[in-house]
Amino acid sequence: MEDWQILIPKLAFEHEFLLHGIFSLAALHMVTTTTDPEQVLSYLDTALECSELAFAPFRGALAHLAPLNCDAVFAQSAIVTIIGIALPRLNAQHRGEPFSMIETMITVFELLQGASKISQISKPWRQASIFFKYEWRGNPMLDPEMANAIAQLRALNGSIENTDSVQHIMNEEAIDSLEDSFAKFTHAPHPAPILAWIAYVKREFVDGLRARQPLQLLILMNWAVLLNELGAHFWWAKGCSEELVAELLSELKDQNEKWKLALQWPQQKVGI
Question: Is the pTM here over 0.70, yes or no?
Answer without folding.
Answer: yes
